[in-house]
Amino acid sequence: METAIKDTKSKDSQQAKKGHPSGDQRFKQLDITMKRNQYRQDSLIEVLHKAQETFGYLETNVLTYVARSLKLPLSRVYGVATFYHLFSVKSNVDTAHTCVVCMGTACYVKGGGEVVKALEKELEITVGGTTPDNQISLMAARCMGACGIAPAVVFDGRVAGKQTPETVMEKIKDWQE
Ligand code: FES
Fold first, then answer.
1. 174 vs 115: CA distance, rounded Å
2. 54 CA distance to ligand 1 centroid (A)?
3. pLDDT tens sequence across 32-75
4. Does ligand 1 have an atom closer than 6 angstroms to the CB of 143?
5. What's the mean pLDDT in 21-35?
């Protein structure tokens, strides 16, 4: 029995070391940080920092990925993430939609700042906020590993490249309908 549990754990960790099955570039950014720290469990806070920078907030699937990679119980990772106020933990059901604008250097110089301004104006909230009807949360991230398609915006977990105030507004209008 014990062997079976160990086997599952090591399988999980091997899978995590191969990268996230979605192929999402943001998980690769996270992999680099974990690898640099040799998947040490005491690097958890640093890894969560990187995750927050890359994703804009910590979602359950990201916390699960970190837990598997560092071979830590999810409850421990979740506990640390919610204990520190600097981390913003969102469950998948908090808001109907999430919009994360990359404000890393490449995205910023290609217009990420204008995209954020347009969204803040339209939604009447600032980055980090949620519309009063709980429909849309607006967040910012640093480099998501998608600099080639800057400026990048993630709508409900899907990365969209070469965004402008006009294209993001179209998406927002879709959500609001
Ligand atoms: S700076 Fe935005 S993806 Fe790299």
1. 17
2. 9
3. 999 999 999 999 999 999 999 999 889 888 998 999 999 999 88
4. yes
5. 90
Does the N-terminal peptide bond of residue 132 adopt cis geometry, omega within 30 degrees of 0? no
Q: What distance in angstroms lies between residue 148's CA and the mean position of ligand 1's atoms?
A: 8
Domain with 171 in it: what CATH number?
A: 3.40.30.10
Neighbours of 9 (CB within 10 A): 12
Choose which residue among 30, 50, 107 to substitute to test ligand 1 binding: the one with the highest number of ligand atoms within 8 A of its C-beta.
107
Residue 88 lies in a domain: no
Rounded CA gap, 9 and 65, in Å? 13
Q: Is residue 113 part of a domain?
A: yes
Local structure of residue 110 (DSSP, 8 states) = I
Q: For residues 81 and 98, what is the distance between their CA atoms, to the nearest angstrom?
A: 19
**Is 55 domain-assigned?**
yes
Distance linking the first and last C-alpha atoms of the chain:
52
| 89, part of any domain | no
Considering only CA atoms, which of 144, 101, 97 is closest in space to residue 119?
A: 101
